[in-house]
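[step 3/7] inverse_fold.run input=structure_tokens len=695
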């Protein structure tokens, strides 16, 4: 048996094949001249093929039943013509003075995922192809002397007719895939080849189940040994395989002999893989041998230090998302990217990441957005900046993450006021009606590449300015922004440690922005201490509201920073410009317009809460008199997380002093709050000296 690509038809893409293999059955067209034994092979295969996966189409033939041959539906010529005119047949053809037809209902099982086998004509392949997502032609051959003997033995034709059949040559045209079976020898051997060809190309789904176990050492799927022939003859225990669904998933096969672990018709995935696949339990999936990534050469060249082009970057990203690389290969790529990425490579990576999610379109030419690099707790400026900008009339679809290593992400803080788990359609609606939104990025612009890369680079601590810029700007492209303001806090405990690194990052953001069609303005800011007084979702929400409502005790540093970033954005409005941007931002804040915009945004997103600081409190006291020399922002965030933030939105740290303040022994430097006594009990006696340094 040999398998070759068919002539005159372009091979389907991997994505097309995956969709066809997942949802639709395969149409097998068994073709070949009379006497090669098609009927014998089909009859032999019936008993060997799993009936729940295969259907045999019965032909309608204008030949009496008593004439012998296949089990066909006999029909008179006039009746056949009438049925054909009425549209009863999917495909018809004529040969040797007879008419043949396949009823439409005979091909209907294809749409339900069944594989359909048809004894077909070589002249009708193109017509059949119009009724199936995937067609495989099984061409049966035999030596001429064997065919002659078979034709003479069946006694239907005289010598002249036999000679005419032997001399007939019909090319196979329009076949995307052809499997050639030599049936010139023993029938048992021919049937075995035929069955192997059908099993090797058919849709043979397994039922998706959630496994109750997890194996270390990478993603593993569990199948029963009896399922291996159904999945693919090329699959072995421990081998790499792909689960073909809307989102392909690469796994290693763990083979079980115990049906209590996984049934013979099923494939079981541990919870993390099951959730990544995104299908309901009981769904059908197809398992096949893992296809080597088309971009592997490009990835290896990057690991070796070469610079990749736009197409190569896109190919690598798609194959990573497609699950075609091992964790080790992805880690190698991330390390290489952390070591060296040119501006063009970062731009290509940014665009490729943005293309993994559906971009949001707007009917405005100027769509603004902002991002803070993070690392500094107590920095809820988005809750102030977005309403100021929205109140002015510039659309600002702000999406943010939840906390990763900090005590509160912007989405965690906003969730104290409104629902943030929005869809792209929700985001569009809210911004269209109110001018702005503050939403969680997870359902809008968080791509599957983020999940894959974060799962590897976070445990390994892979840090890369280029990868950060790519991730951030790709999300801005995805939400349809045209102009982006970037705040880069700089400090020993911030994400960006030094002023020089901050300036380098400013240039990188702006260069990559230009390369991908974004107007980006980045600026460094003070990351030495928390911006507001609260650290933790509810406490930071309180600080933002204090600024928006104009309370005299609102954190001045928070108000000033928010106004600065808002002015950076408002300056893009030609009607404002850099000269009036700061004054415009202050007017919108102090007049109450920003507060009204915030309330409108929260109402449009859907109110959420209540969210208040926890009732349990423990003060951190000064161990001696002196001056506050510094506040360790890393220690503050760690303490807030230790008492429950951000999952406990009421947990956190409320600061009462700032660097430069004079304190006496026993003064309250901060209050630690939590929603339970258990949270308070984790505070170490040394917490005060870990957070505050006194001169």
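[step 3/7] decode complete -> sequence:
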């Amino acid at each position: 048996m040999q398998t070759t690509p068919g002539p005159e038809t372009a091979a389907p893409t991997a994505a097309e094949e995956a969709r066809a293999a997942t949802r639709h059955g395969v149409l097998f067209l068994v073709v070949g001249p009379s006497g090669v034994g098609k009927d014998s092979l089909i009859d032999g295969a019936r008993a060997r093929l799993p009936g729940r996966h295969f259907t045999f189409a019965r032909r309608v033939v204008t030949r009496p039943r008593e004439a012998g041959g296949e089990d066909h539906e006999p029909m008179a010529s006039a009746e056949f013509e009438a049925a054909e005119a009425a549209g009863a047949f999917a495909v018809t053809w004529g040969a040797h003075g007879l008419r043949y037809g396949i009823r439409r209902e005979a091909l209907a099982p294809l749409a339900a995922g069944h594989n359909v086998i048809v004894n077909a004509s070589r002249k009708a392949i193109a017509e059949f192809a119009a009724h199936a997502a995937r067609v495989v032609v099984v061409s049966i051959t035999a030596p001429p002397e064997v065919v002659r003997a078979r034709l003479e033995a069946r006694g239907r034709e005289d010598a002249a007719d036999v000679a005419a059949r032997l001399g007939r040559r019909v090319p196979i045209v329009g076949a995307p895939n052809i499997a050639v079976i030599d049936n010139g020898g023993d029938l048992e051997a021919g049937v075995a080849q035929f069955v192997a060809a059908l099993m090797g190309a058919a849709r043979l789904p397994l039922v998706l189940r959630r496994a109750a176990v997890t194996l270390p050492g990478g993603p593993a799927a569990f199948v029963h040994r009896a399922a291996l022939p159904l999945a693919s003859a090329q699959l072995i225990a421990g081998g790499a395989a792909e689960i073909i669904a809307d989102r392909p998933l690469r796994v290693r096969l763990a083979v079980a002999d115990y049906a209590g672990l996984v049934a013979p018709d099923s494939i079981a995935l541990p919870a993390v893989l099951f959730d990544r696949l995104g299908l309901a339990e009981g769904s059908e999936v197809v398992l096949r041998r893992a296809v080597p990534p088309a971009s592997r050469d490009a990835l290896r060249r990057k690991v070796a230090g070469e610079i990749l082009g736009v197409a190569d970057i896109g190919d690598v990203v798609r194959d990573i998302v497609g699950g075609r690389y091992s964790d080790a290969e992805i880690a190698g790529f991330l390390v290489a990217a952390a070591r060296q990425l040119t501006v063009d490579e970062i731009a290509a990576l940014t665009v490729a990441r943005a293309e993994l999610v559906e971009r949001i379109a707007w009917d405005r030419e100027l769509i603004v957005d902002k991002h803070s690099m993070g690392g500094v707790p107590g920095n809820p400026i988005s809750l102030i900046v977005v309403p100021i900008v929205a109140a002015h009339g510039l659309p600002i679809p702000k999406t943010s993450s939840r906390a990763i290593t900090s005590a509160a992400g912007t989405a965690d803080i906003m969730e104290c006021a409104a629902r943030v788990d929005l869809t792209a359609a929700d985001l569009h609606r809210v911004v269209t009606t109110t001018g702005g939104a503050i939403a969680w990025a997870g359902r809008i612009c968080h791509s599957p590449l983020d999940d894959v890369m974060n799962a590897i680079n976070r445990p390994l601590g892979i840090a890369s300015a280029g990868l950060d810029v790519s991730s951030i700007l790709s999300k801005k492209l995805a939400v349809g922004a045209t102009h982006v303001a970037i705040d880069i806090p700089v400090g020993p405990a911030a994400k960006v440690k030094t002023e020089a690194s901050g300036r380098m990052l400013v240039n990188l953001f702006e260069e990559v922005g230009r390369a991908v069609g974004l107007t980006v303005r980045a600026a460094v800011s003070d990351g030495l201490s928390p911006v507001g007084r609260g650290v933790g979702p509810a406490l930071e929400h309180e600080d933002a509201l204090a600024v928006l409502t104009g309370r005299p005790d609102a954190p001045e540093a928070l108000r000033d920073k928010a106004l600065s970033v808002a002015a950076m954005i408002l300056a893009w409005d030609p009607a404002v410009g850099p000269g009036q941007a700061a004054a415009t931002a202050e007017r919108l804040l102090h007049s109450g317009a920003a507060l009204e915009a915030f309330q409108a945004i929260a109402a449009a997103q859907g109110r959420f809460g209540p969210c208040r600081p926890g009732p349990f409190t423990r003060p951190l006291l000064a161990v001696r008199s002196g001056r506050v020399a510094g506040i360790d922002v890393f220690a503050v965030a760690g303490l807030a997380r230790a008492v429950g933030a951000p999952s406990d939105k009421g947990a956190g740290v409320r600061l009462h002093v700032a660097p430069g303040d004079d304190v006496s022994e026993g003064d309250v430097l901060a209050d630690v709050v939590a929603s339970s006594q258990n949270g308070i009990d984790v505070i170490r006696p040394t917490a005060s000296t870990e957070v505050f340094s006194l001169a």
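[step 4/7] annotate
The two ends are 85 Å apart (CA to CA).
DSSP finds 27 helices and 28 strands in the chain.
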